[in-house]
Amino acid sequence: MKVLEVENLKKSLGKREIIKDISFSIEEGEIFGFLGPNGAGKTTTIRMLVGLIHPNEGSIKICGYDLKKDTEKALKEVGAVVENPELYKYLTGRENLMQIARIRKIP
Question: Fewer CB within 10 Å, N or C, the chain?
């Protein structure tokens, strides 16, 4: 079973293309990592994969759920701490706190 499917992912900031047409998939049980020099786009890619920022083009599926269309279902399958932890901008303050509580299993 594919736990992550990324197709034709692109991200630009202004005229600068940060991520250029990335595609890959990860099967359940696989170990996967991002390697590259500073500024290569590793953190930007990971932030897109966990919904912190949105790609300009492409699609991300987590356990079969499209991150753009089924955001809540997709993110229930993810746990991540990125370099500088941020809040999800599309959630309210309360929803962000509830997400953190759910991850930490706080009632």
Answer: C
pTM above the 0.90 mark?
no
Contact 56, 11 (CB under 8 A): yes
Domain boundaries, the chain: 2-103
Residues 6+ away with beta carbon under 8 Å from 49? 4, 6, 60, 62, 67, 78, 80
Please tell me the class of the 2-103 domain.
alpha beta
Tell me the residue type at 1: M
Give the pair of three-digit tokens for residue 80: 């991540």
Would you say the C-alpha torsion 21, 60, 27, 1 has a positive or negative sign? negative
52-84, pLDDT tens digit by residue? 899 999 999 999 999 999 998 998 888 776 666
